[in-house]
User: Fold these one by one.
Assistant:
Number 1:
Amino acid sequence: MDMKHPAPAEELLSSGHFACPGCGVALSMRLTLKVLGERTRMVVPASCSSVIASKYPHTAMKVPFIHTPFAVSAGFATGIAHALELKGDKESPVMVWAGDGASYDIGFAGLSGAAERNERILYICYDNEAYMNTGAQRSSATPSCTWTPTTPSLKREQKKNLFKIMVDHKIKYAATACVSHPQDMMEKLKKAKEASKEGFSFLLLLTPCPTGWGMEENLTVQAARLAVETGIFPLLEAEKGRVRITHIPTALGEEEGYLKLQKRFSKMRSEETKALKEWVRERWRELDSLSSSLP
């Protein structure tokens, strides 16, 4: 952490929560709540975060929050934002905190609808690349060549580009972020918070899962950093459809270290690794071209 710009001291996620050791979701939630502040209204669909919050009547959260079914979190948040507006409150952030299963898949229609209507909410998808709360089954966020219980012969389809889809909605603000790069993440959270006062904003956070990814619990931040630095997870932001790269990877073409860290990629063959490396290179060529063409 850059101590020139430290995170706020106040803790809005208590210790003693029910996250697994090394959980990337808990790390990201802690930093997110620090930046958004105690006035945040939080909507949590069925997910690992439903468990992290702890059991009723106790809670690890120090902000108001509501659990919802998988598909309807964006609609719930929309209703809360409208209710607050009727009370004259446009300052309290209304945040959806949803996993990839509830965002890429089951709740995608609600997410798209809220974005198209430009609702005044901040939607955060924490992406651990599978349905981790129920056994790490594949989602459309799961990368190609990943072993999961529902893809024992490896997933063959490439990961859905949810960031690009949201940018195409021409929303106020969209970004990708990762807890391994906290200063970048905090700056984007601040921008997203401000943008949500006027319209829809979206953040996609990569949140490694030691259990589902098959790695030691002390490797969470290392895995996250390798995903960013090898270019597998680009750090980007878009304001009114204009995309900007916020961090240039330092290890493009060195994806093997990231893959070997995780058992979920242990069945990849050399030709599949080669195809992955080419996919990463091609995506960065597209990003470089897109960014350089912007005024």
Number 2:
Amino acid sequence: MAETKKMTKRMVFERVIQVIETTDVEDKDLLIEKLHNEIELLNKKNNSSTPTKVQIENQSIKENIIKELKAFGRPATATELMATETLKGYSNQKLTALLTQLNDSGAISRVVDKKKAYFSAN
């Protein structure tokens, strides 16, 4: 079975521009201009570098996670981190997601032992 690639808005707009350019359509230049404008709006939206409220909150939580991992002095699980005073209000899923992000960025290390993930500060 062939894998189909999902078309993004940008891809659709670019394809429509190609079709319009090869056909004799009324107001051809105006249509192309409008589509290029839509593509430019998508570019601006994707280049927005302002972090969201949740991203700012998550950064604070990540800093607390690293502090707690350093305080443990040994690899710890997400469940153990949940039991700490600073991280007790967060779910296992939330902490695991943030631990994964920290691991991917290289800020912490992850080791699996007997199907259990342990994290340690680098």
